[in-house]
Amino acid sequence: MNKSILNTEIQEFINSNLKSDISGLLLKGIPFEGIDSKIVIEQIEAKKRCEKKLPTWFSTKNIYYPNKLNIEQTSSELTAKYKADLVSGKSLIDLTGGFGIDTYYFSKQIEAVTHCEINAELSEIVKHNYKVLDVTNITCLNESGIDALKSIDNQFDWIYIDPSRRDESKNKMFLLSDCAPDVKAFQNLFLDYAKNVMIKTSPLLDITATKGDLKHVKQLHVIAVNNEVKELLWILERDYEGELKIKTINITKSDNENFDFNYSEEPTIEAEFSNPLTYLYEPNSAVLKAGAFSIISSKLNVHKLHKHSHLYTSNELINFPGRRFKVEKVIPFNKKEFAKSGIKKANVTTRNFPISVNDIRKKLKIKDGGQSYLFFTTDKTNSKIVIVCSKLM
Questions:
Q1: What are the residue boundaries of the THUMP-like domain, all occurrences included (predicted)?
Q2: In terms of Cα–Cα distance, which of 133, 137, 119 is closest to 57?
Q3: Is this model's pTM higher than 0.90 or not?
């Protein structure tokens, strides 16, 4: 950590060049002696990435930023706030603290929080930023979270861990056992030191396989932001042997969409099928990731169009965790029949359909945009259809 970065002149330079072309800045050179221009550029690039993802950090003076990869890997403030609402008690230890966003929000719910970070420079950066942010109940330790847990040798109300999902070659890792530290191997140790363990994993992990790797799983939270799944949160509770509750949330600018169900319910439910009725529903990405394909039909009293289409329909308009549409008409997938509709511009979506969106646009000469929404899908009789819709709020 180069504290010269915090000099007023350099901070002003960083802030005034957040929208500047980086290549141009490098060619022009940084007008400060005694500091590597690459460090200044790194601060500019990292801060730019924080404007929407970490607005508290972005808007606070004298924040020191790590490299872009650390910013990319850290939780957003939106998801960190969500996680913080799940915990309570006197003590929590974050075994893989990173840039410290999750730890910061945990400190608003927990009396004493410990931030562990094995990278010495990053640990120093986080400690500095907490001081700037006027946080007084977080202790920063520059050591492995596993080592810290053993050396502290105390009971915690919560352990939080976000295992690294990249190997030494920076390749993304998709299996729990490939992450570092190996949560599968250490989970018994975690539950020895805390009654509750929260594990953040990649949204790419297979839920069934990961559930099989973990013990005493009480809840799984599937978190999406603006319909993009960002993370899976696994809540383990010491000695818990009950039902796994799956909670899905899609955090949007206007509202949060929630849908909860028990893991064991989905395989036992047979959805009812129907041709498109008055309204059409498309589940959000969190619901789809959670695999709530039949249970959502049963719980919300809507019909599926086809076993593999994952589109739903009803005659009565309902609140639904996803997009809602008014069905205007249904057209057989046929070039001549579609031509009769006169649709030249539309938003196109495919579900359980053998042709890509781009190929559909070329084949039917449909421009992107407009007020019409077209769903190319397969109905309950295995016929290929086009559902013409208007979007509802």
A1: 322-391
A2: 133
A3: yes
